[in-house]
Amino acid sequence: MNQYLKNLNKIEFVVTYACTGRCKHCSEGDHTSCGEHIHPRIAADAVRKIAAEYDIKTVMTFGGEPLLHTDTVYTIMKSAKELDIPKRQVITNGYFSKNADKIRETAERLAEYGVNDLLLSVDAFHQETIPLDLVKQFATQAKKCGVPIRLQPAWLVSATDDNPYNRKTREILDSFADIGISENEGNVIFPEGNALKYLAEYFTNVIPKNPYAENPRDVRCVSFLPNGDVLSGNMYKRDIMEIIKDYAP
Questions:
Q1: Which helix (H) or strand (E) holds 92?
Q2: pLDDT at 51 over 80
Q3: How many CB atoms lie within 10 A of CB 37?
Q4: Rounded distance, CA 92 to CA 73, Å?
Q5: Which of 67, 129, 169, 208 could pair with 96 as two cysteines, CB 3.0-4.6 Å apart?
Q6: What is the rounded CA–CA span in Å between residue 89 and residue 239?
């Protein structure tokens, strides 16, 4: 076993950089490269191979907006469910279709394939470009299907800082009370990508810790990018276990 991954317990897939939102806090910037997305069969195969060697506790899909490629999400989650991986997580902004039947069907399929932690990104930034009524429609359907769902806001400076964005986020979160969806702690925005471009004035005194930073000598999470890049290799060019075996910081 590679000593740098001896504590590996999580697999995550950035399904796509394509997104239905244009958020000014997004660490990925303006999403100018959005054509690629994770190949479902190869991704599921990677999950099975890694889980055979490591005690994986979480498999997560996010983006961009992962539900623009539902077949990829379904296939990854199906494999995680079959392997009894405890947490099967999807992070979504909830806006992937305007069609009520498609929204209902997606919620049903997420339940069928074992998603048991659905994090819904709602806050002042997402709702500048994403219609809240359609997000609530999806949230209602997911809850009806029995998918555990939580609100996942992005906070500016801190969750307690009194700024216009945080006040608007609190209003949006409160509007979900009638649906009965709980609120996760969310995350504090890191100055990267669009956040650095549009919100720089809020980072003059304190720079928050980067929530995505990984210790390269103690990798706990293997993260796949839409083009297949992972660690020091690419899952479309080499077997994932060879990549893990050869990884060095």
A1: strand 87-92
A2: yes
A3: 22
A4: 11
A5: 67
A6: 24
CB atoms within 10 A of CB 105: 14
pLDDT (average), residues 58-81: 97
Tell me if 2 sits within 8 A of 244, measured CB to CB: yes
Q: State residue 122's pLDDT score.
A: 98
Residue ranges in the chain assigned as alpha helix (H):
40-53, 70-82, 100-112, 132-144, 164-174, 194-198, 240-246
Report, as an integer, the average pLDDT of 136-148.
Answer: 98
* DSSP-assigned letter for residue 238: S
Backbone φ and ψ of 88, nearest 5°? -120, 100
Task: Of 90, 86, 200, 179, give the one whose Cα is nearest residue 137.
Answer: 179
Helix axes 100-112, 70-82, angle to 10 degrees: 20
pTM of the full predicted structure?
Answer: 0.95
Place of tokens 């994986």: 56
Look at residue 32 in the predicted model and tell me its pLDDT.
53
The C-alpha R_g of the chain, in whole angstroms, comes to 18
Residues whose CB falls within 8 Å of the CB of residue 166, separated by 6 or more in sequence, listed in order: 124, 155, 156, 157, 159
Whether the CA torsion 97, 98, 99, 100 is positive or negative: it is: positive
Measure the CA–CA gap between 247 and 234, rounded to whole angstroms.
12
Q: How far is the CA of 239 from the CAs of 2, 51, 122, 194, 228, in angstroms?
A: 15, 14, 37, 34, 11
